[in-house]
Each structure stands twice: as C-alpha cells, then as structure tokens.
C-alpha cells in the first residue's frame, strides 16, 4: 500500500510537472524503472498468477536485465508442461504457455512441441476470428524458435483470411461478425501477418506485402498528438465494448508495425518523426503504476529500440536547473530509449529564449562539445553571459554518418525548458518613518537584508512607513522576482500583507497609515515587520524579520469592523472537554429518622395490646394434643407457618420472587400435608368430645 | 331530654357489654385480632398523613395487609360462629385452614409489593 502510494505520488509529481510546464519531462528508461518493476511484479508463492501475467512479468524483467527465472520456474514450469500436454488447452492457453516457456526454458521434449505444432496448424485451418489466428500463429513462431521445423502449409490462405478482416481506414475487425473496427486489433493483425510471412515455406507475393504497407500508412494517418509533440494511437470510439486505453493501443500497434517491418523487405513509408513521437509518448508516462502499463511501456520501447523503420534518439536534459553560483554547465544527453549510446552526432543549441522576451533569442547557434567519457554534450554558459530566469532552449541533432539519417529518428528541433538560477544581490535597503505631507523630513536608516534585524520604530496614524531596496542579478540587471511581500503582524496574530511595487530601478512601498486605519481594525500596539522576497530563479530567497513597529491608531468608532477571529489550534479539540453539570431529579423529601423510628414503635404497640388482650381472655394451650405423633404434627404445622413467614421476611430482605416461589412451593406442599393431618386429628378429637 | 339520651346511651352500652360477654372465647379472640389489625392500619395512615405518600407502594402494601387480614378474620368469624345457620355443616378446622392459606397468599403478594 505504501509503495503504491509512493509510486502514485511520483506519478502525480510527473503529471504536475507535465501540466505546469506544458512539455513532458522526457528521460530515457533508467534504474527507477527497474526498481518499479521489482516493486510492482511481486510473486505470490513463487508464481505471478496466470500465464499471461507471468509472461508480462518475465518479459519486463528480461528487457530490464533482471534475472527472475530461477525463482519462478519451480512453480510455473509444471503449469506450462501441463498446459502443453493437455488436450483440453485452447489456442490461447497454448500461446501463453509457449510464451512463458520461451523465457523460462522449462524442460520440454521435442515430441510435445511437435504435437502442439500440429494441433495449432489444425486450429489455423478452422480459425475464423483474429484472435484465433493470433494465438495459433504466435504459438507456432515460439515453437520454431525452439528449433522445431514448422512450416505453415497454407500461408496464402491464412493471409487472405486475416486481410479480409481489415477496414479501409487501416483498422481491423476482430471477426467477420463484429461491426466495430479497432486500432488495437490492427496491431494484433499486423503482428500475426508478420508471423505468417516468417512461417511461410516460400516468399509471399510482393503485392500482398505492398497492400499491408498501405494499410499501415493509413493506420498512421489516424495517429493523435498531444501538445508537447508526443504521438499515440487511440480507438475511434471511447465507449466501445473492448476499449483499452491509449497506452495499450499504441503498444499493440508498435508491436505489430515493428514485427512487420522486420519481415517485410523494402522500407515502410512512415516518417521518422512519428516513430520518435511514439517513443516520446511511452517515455512521457514516467513510471506507470500498474503491472500491465509497465509491461506495455517497456515492451513497446524495446520494440522501438531496434526497429527497422527508424530508431528514435531521445534528447534530454539530466538536470533542468543550472546554477550560476556553482558554475554549472548545460548538459544534454542523446541516447536511445533505454539510455544506451547513440551513433556519433553533434548537438547544437539553435536558439535560446528568455521567458521575458519570447521573440528575440538570447543565444543563437551554439555548438555543444562532446564528453566521450560520460557521453554527454555540454556547453559552458558562464562565458555566454546568461542572466537568471526561465529559458526555452531549442536543440538540433546532426548525425555524423549520412547513412544513419534513414536509420535513426532525431526529430528535427527539440524544445526544452530550463531554469538558470543565481544569487541575487540586495542593495540600498532603507527603511524609515515619514511625516505625512510633502515637506516631510526623511530620516531613513540603512538596512542590511542579509540577516534579520531588530528595528524598533514607532508611528501614529498621521505618519507613513517607507521601505525601499534594489535587486540586482549577477549580471548587473534589475531583477523582478515573483514574490515581494511586506507583512505586518499584530500581537493578537492579525496579519496584513502588502505587495511591493517595482519602479524602474528599485522596489519600494510607502504605507500611509491614515488610509489603513480601518483596514487595521483600529488595533494599536506592536506590529512585527517581516519581508519576503522569492523567485524560482533566485537561490537566496528569504523571509526576514525586520523588527517591530509601535503603531498608535485612534479609537475605533462603535460600528467598526472587528478583526477576524484567529484560527484556533486544531489540536485543541483533542484536549479535555467542558465539564457537564447533570441535572438530576430532586430526591423526594424523606422524613427524619427519629420520626420514622417513633412510628415504627407505635405500629408495634397494637401487637403488644393484642397479646395483653389474649392473656386477659384466658388463652391457653389445653387443646394441644398430648400424644406424641399428633403433637409432632401440630408442632410441624406451626413450625411450617413460621417457616413460610420467615421466608417472606427473607424475600423482602434479599431473595427474588422465583427463589421464593420455589421454596414456597416446597414448604406449601409440606404445610398442606401436615396441616391436613393436624386439623383432621383436631376435628376428630372435637367430635369425640362433643359426642361424649 | 339530654339526660335521658345520655342515660339511654349508657343503658345501650351496658346491654351491649353484657351481650358481648356471652360470646364464646374463640370469637372474642378473632374480634381482638380484627381490632388489632385495624388499629395498625390507622396508625400507618396517620404516618402517611404526617410524612407524605412516598413511597406509595409501601404504604399501600402496609395498609392493605392489615385490611386484608382483618377481612379474612371477619370471614373466619362468620364461618366459625355456631349461631350462623348457613355454615352449619362446615367444620371450623376447615375454615381455619382456609384462613391460614388465604393469609399466606395475601402476605406473599404484600411482601412482593412492599419493595
């Protein structure tokens, strides 16, 4: 996740520089691409996924010179062998398996290859869609590379079938049923036709080759361009069902055209500028963020590196910023797309324009010298008296060997952007307080702007503050930087920023406080003074604290605007929050404890009265049974009632209803049984007494 | 006239007392029990009148337990009274068992409501 973010950030940076400058920063492929490939193509459990993805990864690593075969072959070779041996594999499976094998070099015997070859030959006879032809012919080519003798029996017929799918504008359809034509399909078709030509047993008719060459020329008519001179292919309709972006489409066309150019005799009529434009398109992407994009980019550049149409030569600046202070030289690199050496050539700076004067060139016709040790063309800019600023440099390449003109694409005049930076001298800096009115005395003090100062000025609203200085470039001219700001900051952090104007020779500002009283929100007090001077071409841009000024402004009227609230520290919201005072329901008034206890005693009094009354009535226990068993039952009866009542007390004190009911059920049954015995005994005793 | 009313009242009370003395002891016990229960209820109502009715459920359960047990005692008295022809065939032990059982159920509910 972090890696992808970093790559995306890098890509965003490239895109940002693209959008700002308008011209792409084009550099040949370098180690950054190698590390990107290692980060993007990460094998999981020793394999890259499907065979198609495995091929993309292995091919990219092969072109970039990274050895990955040993890691992968252990997990991938069995899959390859299985696919090649299985009778259920489609032409697509066989194609991908053969591709992967061509890089990995798995141990496969020639019998298997011959079987696969005959299967593919049979498939070609029955094929009717472009992709079927592509996979079968491609597979046969890979088998031929393994040393097996493969001949395409009906090369003419195959050629006709593929050609039948082409359209008049140079595009191809995928099969005879589909109505849409596609540029991507055109690339595939050209690659397949190149394969057919190389597999044929005798040379194909030259007229057929000529027809295909015409198709390629028509296809190149539909090439699109960006403003910075890069060229690319895209589909006509962006909402087509099989839409692949400009990168995939251009990669497909480049593959097809370069493959065809290799097998076709004679030259293809494609201007070298178009090949250079395509190469610049692939390089201007920078470092892609996805595996497929990286594969397309690297593989197409590899096809362009040694193609038979014209080999693009890339002119680039290793560093676009030249410093006068460190006496840099203007360095230019001319290499192939992968950064390897170009044929002998000379680079000349045809014109150089300063951003201020876009019509008159500052320099003309300077030839760059060649440093063969570092293969760099360089030019000393110090003797040329270039001032600081942004420059548009126009270069031209002239090849030493006239025969190379047809082989290489140099691209005529190349326009590149460059910055020349230097140290700006600040001179004659003065600051002071002036009285308002024309006849005011000027007591300005000198200021050294190479370091912070601690001035202490004071002014009231009737006076003016004046600051002026000169900015001189290393060559002695006046310099107008992008940013010249004076900032006054009050103690309460209310800030006011002023832009300084430049007259013919100097920068100055006069702050008339009378006019600014309302703008300053009538805030009197200490204001800190800060001066900022900055520019892209200035190496010593600075932000200087100049000291402070004590301003005395009049009182604000009632309707004066208040200063804007200063931003609160955003981390304050993580601090402790305001205390919440909850509002509880006021508890009920309870009676004083003594009163409650008094009434408790009062409530128990009637019980005492009841007992006294009972005694007065002459209550006795004569009716209690005397013999053992009934007596026991009676005792149990009374004990049971007492137990139930004490259970109730326990229930009130701490038990819950369910426990109580359980215990009550148990006690109740007991009580009923015992009570029944006791009472029936009592009843029988009373009846006996009555009858007797 | 007043004198005769007061003496009439005195005579009424005296006759009531003599008649009451003739009731059997067990009925007198039950009457005493009823009086005890009612007095307890009255004291609780007075307390509530003094301190307010919070918590109301406790007050209700207290008063209702007294009143309920008084009512059950009255039922017992009716059933046990030998002069009551309606309950001639009901043995007093049976009435007493009913009284005990209903009291236990009443007090379970009361205890639950007491809180």
TrEMBL record, chain B:
- The name this protein goes by in its record: Dolichyl-diphosphooligosaccharide--protein glycosyltransferase subunit DAD1
Q: Which InterPro entries match?
A: DAD/Ost2
Q: Give one Pfam family.
A: DAD
For whether the record's keyword set contains Membrane, the answer is yes
Q: Which GO terms describe its biological process?
A: protein N-linked glycosylation
Q: Where does this protein come from, organism-wise? A: Elaeis guineensis var. tenera (Oil palm)
Quaternary structure per UniProt? Answer: Component of the oligosaccharyltransferase (OST) complex.
**Which GO cellular component terms are attached?**
oligosaccharyltransferase complex
Pathway as given in its UniProt record: Protein modification; protein glycosylation
Q: How does it sit in the membrane?
A: Multi-pass membrane protein
Q: Indicate whether Nucleus appears among the record's keywords.
A: no
Please classify the protein's predominant subcellular localization into one broad category. endoplasmic reticulum
């Amino acid at each position: 996740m972090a890696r992808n973010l970093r790559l995306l950030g890098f890509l965003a940076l490239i895109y940002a520089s693209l959008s700002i400058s308008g011209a792409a920063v084009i550099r040949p492929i370098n180690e950054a691409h190698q590390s990107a490939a290692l980060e993007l193509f990460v094998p999981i459990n020793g394999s890259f996924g499907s065979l198609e993805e495995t091929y993309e990864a292995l091919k990219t690593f092969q072109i970039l010179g990274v050895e990955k075969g040993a890691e992968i072959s252990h997990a991938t070779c069995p899959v390859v062998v299985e696919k090649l041996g299985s009778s259920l594999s489609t032409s697509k499976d066989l194609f991908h398996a053969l591709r992967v094998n061509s890089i990995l070099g798995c141990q496969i015997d020639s019998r298997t290859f011959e079987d696969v070859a005959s299967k593919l030959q049979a498939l070609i006879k029955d094929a009717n869609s472009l992709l079927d032809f592509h996979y079968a012919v491609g597979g046969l080519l890979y088998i031929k590379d393994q040393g097996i003798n493969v001949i395409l029996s009906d090369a003419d017929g195959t050629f006709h079938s593929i050609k039948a799918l082409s359209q008049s504008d140079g595009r191809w359809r995928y099969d005879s049923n589909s109505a849409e034509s596609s540029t991507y399909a055109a690339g595939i078709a050209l690659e397949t036709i190149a394969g057919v030509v190389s597999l044929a047993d005798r040379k194909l008719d030259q007229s057929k080759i000529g027809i295909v060459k015409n198709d390629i020329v028509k296809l190149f008519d539909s090439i699109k361009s960006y403003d910075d001179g890069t060229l690319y292919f895209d589909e006509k309709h962006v909402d087509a069902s099989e839409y692949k972006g400009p990168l995939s489409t251009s990669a497909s066309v480049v593959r097809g055209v370069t493959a065809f150019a290799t097998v076709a005799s004679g030259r293809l009529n494609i201007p070298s500028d178009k090949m250079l434009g395509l190469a610049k398109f692939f390089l201007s992407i920078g470092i892609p963020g996805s595996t497929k994009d990286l594969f397309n980019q690297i593989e197409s550049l590899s096809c362009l590196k040694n193609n038979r149409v014209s080999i693009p030569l890339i002119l680039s600046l290793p560093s676009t910023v030249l410093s006068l202070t460190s006496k840099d030289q203007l360095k230019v690199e001319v290499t192939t797309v992968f950064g390897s050496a170009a044929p002998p050539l000379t680079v000349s700076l045809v014109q150089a324009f300063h951003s201020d004067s876009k019509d008159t060139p500052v320099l003309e016709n300077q030839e760059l010298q060649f440093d063969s040790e570092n293969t760099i063309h360089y030019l000393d800019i110090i003797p040329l008296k270039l001032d600081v600023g942004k420059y548009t440099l126009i270069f031209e390449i002239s090849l030493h060997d006239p025969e190379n003109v047809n082989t290489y694409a140099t691209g005529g005049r190349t326009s590149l952007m460059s910055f020349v930076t230097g140290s700006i001298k600040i001179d004659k800096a003065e600051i002071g307080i002036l009285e308002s009115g024309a006849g005011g005395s000027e007591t300005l003090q000198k200021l050294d702007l190479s370091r912070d100062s601690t001035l202490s000025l004071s002014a009231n609203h009737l006076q003016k503050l004046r600051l002026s200085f000169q900015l001189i470039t290393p060559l002695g001219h006046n310099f107008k930087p992008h940013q010249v700001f004076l900032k006054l900051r009050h103690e309460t952090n209310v800030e006011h920023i002023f832009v300084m104007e430049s007259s013919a020779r100097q920068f100055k500002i006069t702050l008339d406080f009378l006019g600014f009283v309302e703008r300053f929100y009538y805030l009197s007090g200490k204001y800190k003074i800060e001066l900022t001077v900055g520019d892209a071409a200035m190496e010593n841009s600075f932000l200087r604290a100049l000291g402070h000024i004590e301003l005395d402004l009049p009182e604000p009227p009632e309707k004066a605007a208040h200063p804007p609230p200063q931003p609160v520290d955003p981390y304050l919201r993580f601090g402790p929050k305001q205390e919440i005072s909850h509002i509880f329901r006021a508890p009920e008034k309870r009676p004083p404890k003594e009163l409650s206890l008094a009434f408790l005693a009062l409530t128990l009094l009637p019980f005492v009265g009841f007992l006294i009354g009972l005694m007065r009535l002459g209550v006795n226990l004569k009716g209690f049974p005397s013999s053992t068993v009934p007596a026991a039952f009676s005792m149990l009866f009374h004990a049971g009632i007492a137990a139930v009542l004490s259970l109730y007390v326990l229930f009130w004190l701490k038990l819950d209803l369910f426990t109580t009911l359980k215990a009550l059920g148990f006690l109740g049954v007991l009580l009923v049984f015992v009570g029944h015995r006791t009472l029936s005994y009592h009843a029988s005793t009373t009846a006996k007494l009555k009858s007797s | 006239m007043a004198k005769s009313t007061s003496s009439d009242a005195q005579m009424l009370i005296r006759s009531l007392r003599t008649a009451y003395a003739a009731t059997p002891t067990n009925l007198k016990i039950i009457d005493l029990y009823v009086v005890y229960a009612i007095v307890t209820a009255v004291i609780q109502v007075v307390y509530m009148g003094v301190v307010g009715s919070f918590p109301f459920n406790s007050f209700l359960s207290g008063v209702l337990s007294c009143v309920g047990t008084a009512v059950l005692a009255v039922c017992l008295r009716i059933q046990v009274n030998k002069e009551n022809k309606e309950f001639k065939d009901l043995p007093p032990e049976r009435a007493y068992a009913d009284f005990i059982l209903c009291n236990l159920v009443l007090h379970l509910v009361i205890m639950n409501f007491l809180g």
